[in-house]
DNA sequence: TCACGCATGTAAGATGTTACATGATTAA
DNA sequence: TTAATCATGTAACATCTTACATGCGTGA
């Protein structure tokens, strides 16, 4: 019973709850819509999907040679799978693992010229600006889909979270640049290497 | 040459660049000051520290029975270690791995009663409020230390980032609650289980 | 004496990524 | 015909967490 692939299992279940899908399309969804808070690789997806079937949480309709490519495998969620998913959804979420390499580098900033940090912050700002734009793009898309009676309100909420967080990151980086360039430079000079 | 323990190696180097330390104190620092953007476990720390010594990036002064406990091992960074650290600091940071379980659950929200989501968001808000408070506490502490000529400006910057991000998270969650309770409830009702 | 904090360490397992292999279809 | 995209999969490796074992010092 302790043989699951951690949370990936529930990610797959949640994706299949939307509609029957292939591992490939699940990957695409996660890349596009989820990248700002979750990521999965094929090396996780395909084995997990097989496990779901083995556990009776999904069924695979092997459409060999039907569609395109080498014969795609469409997975659908079962009732047991839906039950498993909603049980998990009820549990209080706790995993919040973030690893921001840039913050690590900033925090070790006294070991490097401030100009290097300013450079890192510049690309960080650009990256976050792009992400905010992307997220707003998704929100617009979801709004349009809603006009066609396709409801994506929950995905829209996560995109909104992206807007909030990426904007905050950008604002922080701008402020950090200001603080570093105002007083960080002479700091390093007086110390030398 | 591909035998490093990933980024943990540089985290250790950065910690030792501040002052000679034991693995235990490094863990404490990371838990307190870094938890919002990085985490390391003893299972990573101790082996990594040994590797640093093997690679000549640090030296261990084995103060057996000197301090308290079973005999602590104090590690210090070498010149080669400092060089390695600053080389790494120069490289553009890219790792940004975040896994927010709560966003996953929100995005699968249509499979559960909205009340469950509202509950998750409530504890999320409380958690972020506490974190903002903690971060502000650190900033105050760092300011006081600066009056005593102990410079923590770079750590202060990362704490500031915490303030920005956690505030954004809290604000988003408040907004999300509003959106869900305004229209999410009847949505689920019309669908049934 | 007993619990707790300090302190180090390892083994096992869980988790995750990367690189590779395969091969069909589609569009240029 | 060639490249890209669709599509599945595995093996090797890298990484990370968890649980455990050890044991001293300090204060209640």
Automatic annotation (TrEMBL), chains A, B:
Residues 12-86 form the Transcription regulator PadR N-terminal domain. It holds the Pfam family Vir_act_alpha_C. SUPFAM superfamilies: Winged helix' DNA-binding domain (SSF46785). Residues 98-179 form the Transcription regulator PadR C-terminal domain. This is PadR family transcriptional regulator.
């Amino acid at each position: 019973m302790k043989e699951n692939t951690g949370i990936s299992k529930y990610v797959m279940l949640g994706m299949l709850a939307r509609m029957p899908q292939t591992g490939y399309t699940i990957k695409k969804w996660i890349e596009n819509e989820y990248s700002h808070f979750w990521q999965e690789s094929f090396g996780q997806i395909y084995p997990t999907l097989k496990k779901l079937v083995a556990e009776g949480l999904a069924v695979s309709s092997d459409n060999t040679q039907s569609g395109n490519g080498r014969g795609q495998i469409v997975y659908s969620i079962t009732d047991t799978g839906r039950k498993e998913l909603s049980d998990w959804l009820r549990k209080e979420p706790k995993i919040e693992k973030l690893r921001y390499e840039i913050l690590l580098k900033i925090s070790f900033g006294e070991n490097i010229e401030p100009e290097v940090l300013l450079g890192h912050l510049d690309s960080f700002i650009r990256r976050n600006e792009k992400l905010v734009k992307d997220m707003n793009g998704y929100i617009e898309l979801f709004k349009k889909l809603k006009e066609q009676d396709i409801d994506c309100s929950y995905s829209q909420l996560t995109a909104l979270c992206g807007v909030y967080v990426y904007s905050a990151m950008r604002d922080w980086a701008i402020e950090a640049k200001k603080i570093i360039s105002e007083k960080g430079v002479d700091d390093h000079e007086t110390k030398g290497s």
